[in-house]
Amino acid sequence: MAVIKQAISTAIVSYLCALLGVMYTWPSSTLVLFSSANTTLDRPMTETEVALLGSLSSISALISTPFSGYLLDTLGRKYSCMLFALSQVLAWVVVSISYNVVAILTAIFISGFSGCMMLVVPIYVSEICQESIRGTMTSGVMVFYGFGMLASYLMGGYLSYEAMIYSCLSMSVLGVLLLVLLKESPLHLMRKGLEKDAAKVIAYYRSVKVTSKTVEEEIQMLRRAMNPDFDDLTPEVEKLKPEFKENQKMSAWKFFKKSRSSRRALVVALVLYTAAIFQGLMVVQVYAEPLFAEAVPTMSPTICSVISAILTVVSGFIAAFLMEWAGRRNLMIYASLGACVSCIVLGTQIHLHWGPHWITALFMYLFVIMYTCGAGTVPFVLVAEIFLPEIRSVASMIAVEWCLICSFVVLFVFNPLVTAVGLGPVFYFFASVCLLSSIFSFFFVPETKGLTVDVIQNLFASPRKC
Fold first, then answer.
1. Which range is least confidently modeled, 22-26, 76-80, 261-265, 419-423?
2. What's the superkingdom here (predicted)?
3. What percent of the chain has pLDDT over 90?
């Protein structure tokens, strides 16, 4: 029963990531329409406006993400989710009532304010779930994002423009309403001094009484995790301490200066997020239909996009299983190697046309699977579990902010880059990033499967244990 409660709450909050998937991949099914002479808008979009259609949401996400860390610690996880989810509702309202190019781009900009959900949702999920299922549940973020992509491609391919808009608006309103059912994160309640409320939330999610030993142990674990002195003490020494003495609170920046393990964890998070973007699947998702039309001209772009989204969802479930079976580190290493091979084959096939078109489709889909199992899932799980509570919001905000900068760059330059060098050579670049990601993970990423945050921080304090 405990796992079911945690799974239901995870599904509710992860549904917000499905809404992100819908909005972020919406340009894939509309950019050709918007730039054509038969556009539904007041005029065809220019080449620059088409580029902004795919990348403008990253700019507004860059603006909202720095505030997300503050809001997480003041409003709490639940109400932060509600606030950012409302931007999706507002964006679809604008799209539904206007056919003006500037208004559509403005709606895309507004929708980007919810981009920090990729930060907020994993944090919330990691804080309500027990260690044995934490990785699986946190990876649900990408599973639901894949569901959103699939819904977007299906609606774009088989619904009229107006029907799709109103469907997306209804979905976003439902997402806000579902959040009412959630309980606040116990860690946030602890930080606010509401220990009794935190105990009640833990008891609910573990299906035990508030007075049970399980609740008492988790409260003690949260207290210990909120203690910043982990660079000098091992978890074993911590357990031998007869009493827990709460340290004086310090700012996140002072904490970073004091904690070597936190600085190392942040570097790993930044590198993994860079890999997640520059391995290239985000480009395939946002520009799916025109990309498939060029790479696989013998197949319907809509069908190719839908198959890609289905594989993303299936791969997300596979990654959720492998996350607890093979571990985060191994998954990142070997999936990145698989993605590297796929990109090399894709690049040579598109560049040199050495085989039939079905080979292009086959390795494009293999790339989707490898990426989703590795760089598309692992960084989001790791970032949600490697930072101490004192700096989790700020550190995650920095990592996601960097991720959004990378997203804007790769989405904005993709079309001009393809025009300049061709689609094939672009996949050579993606292949090199995949290879470097695998090498970095082998040497610098520790295994965090089933570990509490204090033990994970001890691994970063002693990198030889990674």
1. 419-423
2. Eukaryota
3. 19
232: burial class by Cβ within 10 Å (0-12, 13-18, 19+)? exposed
Are residues 121 and 141 in contact, defined by beta-carbon separation less than 8 angstroms? Answer: yes
CA 387 vs CA 11, 71, 133: distances in Å: 23, 18, 18
How open is the CA angle 388-125-265, to the nearest 5 degrees?
A: 30
Q: Which residue is it, tokens 């930060």?
A: 119
Give how far Cα 440 sits from Cα of 14, 238, 275, Å: 29, 31, 10
Q: CA 232, CA 87: separation in Å to the nearest integer?
A: 43
pLDDT per position as a tens digit, 244-280: 444 455 666 777 777 888 888 889 999 998 988 888 8
d(CA 155, CA 253): 45
CA–CA dist 5, 195 (Å, integer): 21
* CB proximity list for 342: less than 8 A, separation 6 or greater: 363, 364, 366, 367, 370
Q: CB of 57 within 8 A of CB of 24? A: yes
On whether the CB atoms of residues 30 and 165 are closer than 8 A, the answer is: no
Whose CA is closest to 170, among 149, 150, 155?
Answer: 155
Provide, rounded to the nearest whole percent, the portion of the chain with pLDDT above 70: 91
Q: What integer pLDDT is reported at residue 243 of this predicted model?
A: 45
**Shortest CA distance to 54 belongs to which of 15, 16, 104?**
104
Query: DSSP states of 249-309 as a string?
Result: P--HHHHHHH-HHHHHHHHHHHHHHHHHHHTSHHHHHHTHHHHHHHH-TTS-HHHHHHHHH
Residue range 25-41: mean pLDDT, rounded: 82
Q: Which helix (H) or strand (E) holds 36?
A: none
- Is the separation of the CB atoms in 458 and 230 below 8 Å? yes
The two structure tokens encoding residue 338: 């698989």
Q: 365-411: per-residue pLDDT in tens?
A: 899 899 988 988 888 888 878 887 777 778 878 887 888 788 778 87
Say whether pLDDT at 285 is over 50: yes
Higher pLDDT, 175 or 46: 175
